[in-house]
Amino acid sequence: MLMGRIGLVNREAVGLGVTVFVAVRTARHNDEWLSDFAQGVANLPEVVEFYRMSGEIDYLLKVVARDIADFDRIYRKLIKVAELHDVTSSFAMQEIKSTTQLPLGG
């Protein structure tokens, strides 16, 4: 089932060469908090992926930025979205594999 058609853009070619994975832990787990957080994250176009997780962290965000200073700007917006218990950022050193292809065939 096709959900739509997209064009793939080389992030570095458009000045978005920094990829950051942001792990978020929260002390609040109610629907109102999640709604506020999800809406706030949806308003940050630099967040290109957003997951609710099991295990040690509650949410994982993939963020693209121009450079570290640009990420700091994004981070400052993110921490104002909702009350967060802990936020940890990890910068990708090298992208080894990235694909949108799904393993559909044998």
UniProtKB/TrEMBL annotation:
Domain Transcription regulator AsnC/Lrp ligand binding: 22-95
GO MF, one example: sequence-specific DNA binding
Gene3D superfamilies cross-referenced by the UniProt entry: 3.30.70.920
Superkingdom of origin organism: Bacteria
A biological process from GO: response to amino acid
Pfam families per record: AsnC_trans_reg
Cellular component terms per the entry's GO annotation: cytosol
Name of the protein described by the UniProt record: Transcription regulator AsnC/Lrp ligand binding domain-containing protein
Species this chain originates from: Croceicoccus mobilis
